[in-house]
Amino acid sequence: xxxxxxxxxxxxxxxxxxxxxxxxxxxxxxxxxxxxxxxxxxxxxxxxxxxxxxxxxxxxxxxxxxxxxxxxxxxxxxxxxxxxxxxxxxxxxxxxxxxxxxxxxxxxxxxxxxxxxxxxxxxxxxxxxxxxxxxxxxxxxxxxxxxxxxxxxxxxxxxxxxxxxxxxxxxxxxxxxxxxxxxxxxxxxxxxxxxxxxxxxxxxxxxxxxxxxxxxxxxxxxxxxxxxxxxxxxxxxxxxxxxxxxxxxxxxxxxxxxxxxxxxxxxxxxxxxxxxxxxxxxxxxxxxxxxxxxxxxxxxxxxxxxxxxxxxxxxxxxxxxxxxxxxxxxxxxxxxxxxxxxxxxxxxxxxxxxxxxxxxxxxxxxxxxxxxxxxxxxxxxxxxxxxxxxxxxxxxxxxxxxxxxxxxxxxxxxxxxxxxxxxxxxxxxxxxxxxxxxxxxxxxxxxxxxxxxxxxxxxxxxxxxxxxxxxxxxxxxxxxxxxxxxxxxxxxxxxxxxxxxxxxxxxxxx
Length: 510
Fold this sequence. Notes:
Elements (H helix, E strand, L loop, with lengths): L1 H19 L8 H14 L12 H11 L1 H22 L4 E10 L27 E12 H73 L4 H35 L26 H11 L1 H22 L4 E11 L8 E10 L3 H71 L5 H35 L14 H13 L1 H7 L15
Antiparallel strand pairs: 1-2, 2-3, 3-4
Helix pairs in contact: 3-5, 3-11, 4-5, 5-6, 5-8, 5-10, 6-10, 7-9, 8-9, 9-10
């Protein structure tokens, strides 16, 4: 028996040592290849684009397919799942146990007479060689229930913080799409004209070199003419580079694979409002009420207050109530099935000494959050004010660009008449056609900046053109909803007007 036990102990030791030894194993190249193939085909999966995109279709596709925004949505879903899981921690503990024990001989014992100090010669046993036990117990710790309730409320606030982050991401995404769409539309509008003018410049440059080589014009005059043509080519290239990346950026925002060709609908330039329906103070109050950053800080303050409640609750002694149903296969027991119950109390005395420091820390954190909220409020005040200034500047720039384009178009018409009458050369005509293209580009870009500035006002006050969960709708439904929202945006702004703008500071929200 001693030999068998030694072999058993040695075997267990070898198994333990073998189980503790582990060598890190790198992923294979085939796994990396499969991963690359999977992500390459999955990241750009979406409904096909059958027709040219409108502005609001592009915005709808961004909300449905942009991966950065979908990450925000998934984080909110994760926070919600955490909240559901935390609710189970408030339930009583229910544990079912089953056990088996055995030995190679009978558990027997002698007894000792306390008076005579003599051992009894008769050995006895009260346990079978093999025993099976089962029990189902119910326990409820009142302190743990209270702490779990507070933690669940904190997780609920963190879920709402993730929703506010999602709102902020949605507003930023729609603003970026709006700006990129108008710049990309300007590129599409002028791309064909840029290529045609570039070919004419190349042809004119070639003819100019032939004339220079023939000696029909002075060498200096020919070089000056060639330099002017090269300057036109450089200006064309710079103009093209300025707006070319806009379409690529738009494709990234709406999750279209790079290099995919798609067309945009060219809407007419809408007349933008001269003044907003609300004054600066009213817009500021709306911003302080609706901005997601302010909401996040208020939720963080409430989480900190709940942490203070948890610190106080931890000072209370823990009381656990329990009961259970038990059974045993031990044949020596008179009652092999029984129910037990009881209560247990415990108290961590160190929490009493730790609480003052913890309380001071929580108060300091609450003061920090309050100061951060005030600093954020000041920043929001500036953003609302700056957005209004930028909008007025964008309106003025757009007006000037429109006037300049109007003059340049009339000048180009006159130059073309002069060219037909042989009073100016083709190089002069090319130069003015380039100026006209530049003027058209600046006009379109000025309108794109105006649209961006207009969108920035609504973003600065925390306006939502739709609910974040609306991204589950189809592209057509979401596009129509966004168009209605932007069409009635000023009326919506009026509807959000605060009831009263008070000059007196209000108490901090709780």
